[in-house]
Amino acid sequence: MASHKSALKKYRQDEKRRIRNRQHASRLRTQIKKFRKVLASGDEKEARELLPETLSLIDRTAKLGVIHGNAAARTKSRATLAVNKLRTTAR
Fold it and tell me: Are 76 and 58 spatial neighbours (Cβ–Cβ below 8 Å)?
């Protein structure tokens, strides 16, 4: 355990950040699972409604530094492509 005053403060800050980051990451994973479940069901209308909410959450999580910007862009791209693919298969 740290003994310097500054090291103790840094430990407290890191602990708070770790908890906050885990909450954001968990929320994102839950949203993505919900989105993938809708995609698997093939419901294009519901997927289109859920897409903006999911993309927004991905952006916010990346902005906070919980996930890397490129990972966010890749996830958003794949989600959008999956919804567009539903449109073509539904026709």
Answer: yes
d(CA 33, CA 30): 5
Per the structure, the count of domains in the chain is 1
CATH number of the domain within which 31 lies: 1.20.58.110
Considering only CA atoms, give the Rg of the chain: 18
Q: Which domain holds residue 10?
A: 5-90
Three-state DSSP class for residue 43 = coil
Give the angle subtended at the CA of 53 by the CAs of 51 and 56, to the nearest 5°.
105
The whole model's pTM is what? 0.87
The full DSSP string for 59-81 is: HHHHHTTSS-HHHHHHHHHHHHH
Q: pLDDT tens across 7-63, in order?
A: 999 999 999 999 999 999 999 999 999 999 999 999 999 999 999 999 999 999 999
Around Cβ 67, how many Cβ atoms within 10 Å? 18
Instruction: Tell me the two tokens of residue 81.
Output: 């492509």
